[in-house]
Give the backbone structure.
Amino acid sequence: MKLSYRGKQLDRIIGGFLEIPTTNGFAPFFTDKVYWDVRVNGNRMILEKKSFNKELIFSDRQKLLFEGGKIVELINT
């Protein structure tokens, strides 16, 4: 995984899993073609899964709530 910053703020996490079809169903495959856009707003961080390959489209979105610098809640949206 690679972390990308804009100034001192985390902006993007590069690297993630794709579900690859196999004879037994799907298997996770780690790749750098997947990244997470990171947006911080106060005590909330929103992560959106995206791909450098425009043929891959994701609907994964996570929302993290912070208190005192620690994650206190994960909301799947």
Observations:
- Residues 2-21+28-76 form one domain.
